[in-house]
């Protein structure tokens, strides 16, 4: 049994020694001390079904034995010697990752987080195009650094600092968007921004392929195809942020952008790529990579042997355990059950997503789509009491985000839906 510090002590120390911007979930925050596949355990040994996966980060499962073995074997031999020397792990991992990419996306840069990946992608876009303006979607989250905070368009995370030339276009959100599911009208807004708000030239366009923090928002079908054409005509490159959607989570495809039938010029990844290791990557074409060669692009830990060995093991596990097909199968079961639940509970305004990337939007009025903020908060606490951990998101914090480790089963999905049903019936 766990004998370490208890929640109150940890919280007190966090308050004293960590910044006040660090936030936590739940009125009585959880002290999680152990994880095993799709389960988390608190200080008292109580088990929780984890439907949030450390914010969509744990792909294979908490402490997956194969990933752990790879990390430990490499750690015993060599943890770090910098990429100035050769090591096979980074080269092998890059080869394996490139083999998962379509088209000419064959050059890999390793970094340590999603923010760093998007920061690097933005740099590439600006250098390659020779332009400065970036286009991003409203309701997007791309990171919290000085550069990526500009791409992010959810004000919870936006500090007021100079953010460069960034244009936030109308979000092609089929549920809330002013043009419904009409991709052409949203794409026209991108063209308008270019025509009226720029010199006519842009550096690039970036979008998550299903918005994560924004509340599991799928882009109107056909949107990316039209926008990629528009952006390329204006001299820009197209970046897909796969930090949450990559590695088979959407079920139907390995990458989220494939659900829109496009091939980006740059793809950014993090989170699920490392199953919990601090790891991110940018994959691009040799042409774009070439402009980076005018200087040295260096990242001390990017692709270090331990993260490379772990990340490579993640790719192998996802293939061996057929997690993409599993996500499709369990995801459609989950979505089906949630849609049935929606018929019985008026508070469920929208059920959306793909595979194991699911959102449930709660409203007090289905027609007005009024955010059920207080009810969401109550249900969130109730689910925790029942042993189920989900995420919250959306502009008004009224969307449950269900994005579990990809080993999540149909029984787990049933447990989650039954718990939600019970909690809603008690509202
Ligand atoms: N892009 C997306 C889509 C994300 O969800 C996040 C993190 N929530 C990031 C980028 C930034 O990743 P990190 O926190 O690893 O810097």
UniProtKB/TrEMBL annotation:
Record keywords, A-Z: Aminotransferase, Mitochondrion, Pyridoxal phosphate, Transferase, Transit peptide
Pfam families in the cross-refs: Aminotran_3
Record CDD domains: OAT_like
UniProt key word Zinc: no
Keyword Transferase recorded: yes
Required cofactor(s): pyridoxal 5'-phosphate
EC number(s) from the headed UniProt entry: 2.6.1.44
Class in the EC hierarchy, top level: transferase
InterPro entries with a match to the protein in the record: Aminotrans_3, Aminotrans_3_PPA_site, PyrdxlP-dep_Trfase, PyrdxlP-dep_Trfase_major, PyrdxlP-dep_Trfase_small
Compartment(s): Mitochondrion
Family classification: Belongs to the class-III pyridoxal-phosphate-dependent aminotransferase family.
Subunit structure: Homotetramer.
Descriptive protein name: alanine--glyoxylate transaminase
Native organism taxonomy: Eukaryota, Viridiplantae, Streptophyta, Embryophyta, Tracheophyta
């Amino acid at each position: 049994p766990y004998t370490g510090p208890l929640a109150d002590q940890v919280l007190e120390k966090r308050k004293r020694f960590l910044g006040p911007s660090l936030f936590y979930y739940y009125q009585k925050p959880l002290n999680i001390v152990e994880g095993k596949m799709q389960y988390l355990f608190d200080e008292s040994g109580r088990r929780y079904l984890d439907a949030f996966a450390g914010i969509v980060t744990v792909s294979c499962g908490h402490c997956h034995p194969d990933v752990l073995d790879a990390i430990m074997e490499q750690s015993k031999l060599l943890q770090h010697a910098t990429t100035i020397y050769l090591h096979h792990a980074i080269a092998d991992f890059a080869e394996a990752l490139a083999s998962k990419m379509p088209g000419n996306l064959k050059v890999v840069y390793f970094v340590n987080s999603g923010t760093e990946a998007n920061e690097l992608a933005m740099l590439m876009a600006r250098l390659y195009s020779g332009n400065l303006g970036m286009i991003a979607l409203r309701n997007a989250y791309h990171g919290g650094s000085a550069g990526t905070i500009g791409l992010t368009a959810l004000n919870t995370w936006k500090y007021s600092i100079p953010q460069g030339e960034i244009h936030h276009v109308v979000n092609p959100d089929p549920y809330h968007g002013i043009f419904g599911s009409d991709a052409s009208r949203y794409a026209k807004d991108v063209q308008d921004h270019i025509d009226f708000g720029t010199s006519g030239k842009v550096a690039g366009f970036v979008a998550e392929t299903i918005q994560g923090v924004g509340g599991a928002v799928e882009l109107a079908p056909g949107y990316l195809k039209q926008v990629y054409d528009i952006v390329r005509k204006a001299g820009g490159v197209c970046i897909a942020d796969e930090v949450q959607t990559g590695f088979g989570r959407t079920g139907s495809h390995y990458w989220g952008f494939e659900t829109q039938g496009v091939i980006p010029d740059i793809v950014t990844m993090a989170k699920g790529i490392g199953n919990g290791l601090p790891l991110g990557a940018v994959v691009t074409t040799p042409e774009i990579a070439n402009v980076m060669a005018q200087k040295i692009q260096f990242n001390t830990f990017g692709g270090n042997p331990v993260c490379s060995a772990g990340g490579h093991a993640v790719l192998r596990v996802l293939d061996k355990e057929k997690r993409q097909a599993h996500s499709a199968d369990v995801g459609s079961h989950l979505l089906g059950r949630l849609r049935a639940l929606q018929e019985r509970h008026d508070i469920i305004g929208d059920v959306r997503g793909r595979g194991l990337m699911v959102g449930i939007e709660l409203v007090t009025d289905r027609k007005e789509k009024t955010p059920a903020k207080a009810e969401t908060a109550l249900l969130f606490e109730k689910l925790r009491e029942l042993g189920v951990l989900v995420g919250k998101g959306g502009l008004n914090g009224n969307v449950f985000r269900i994005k579990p480790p990809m080993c999540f089963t149909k029984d787990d999905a049933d447990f989650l839906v039954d718990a939600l049903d019970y909690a809603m019936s008690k509202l």
